[in-house]
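User: What would this chain look like folded?
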Amino acid sequence: MRVSAKPLHEYPWILRPFFWSQQRKYGAVLQPGLLWARVPKLFAAVAALYGVLDRKSSPLSPVLRSLVTVRVSQINWCRFCVDINSATLAKRSGSMEKVGQLAQWRESDFFDEKEKAVLEYTEAVTYSDRQVSDELMERLKAFFDDDGIVELTGLIAFQNLSSKFNSALDVPAQGFCEIPRP
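Assistant: Here's the prediction, encoded as structure tokens.
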């Protein structure tokens, strides 16, 4: 990594329960969390935003949220994000098939029309050389109300923040998911 994590005992005591929770959930403290936590107020803001976007009452299904986070992570070359988000997608979808097909989603039969509209929107928002067309927005509105589209856009923006942060600081994968080779 381009910036090192500090030893756990050097972080403010108020952040240690977050690290304990990560250790319990993932079997390891997440490297990005340790980096964000170098600036505790920044860590708190990012954690709060993540909590809002990944809540059970979200209008976006867990599988759809995971499809978005993995695809943004692939585009932004975030090794850590592809690793952890692919493991989450595999768990939420019940298989590795969608994970393995995601980079080629346009040619795949593993994605329904809603997922394809969301993935097209995800790419339009993430790639700087693309635009969101009125036609694409109309297709999204067939599946989501305005609040759902705002939340989807917020999730894409958050994952761009997260994956660009991790990619810039060269955060490695932590071994959560073995990606199948095409």
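The radius of gyration is 17 Å. If you want, I can go into more detail on any region.
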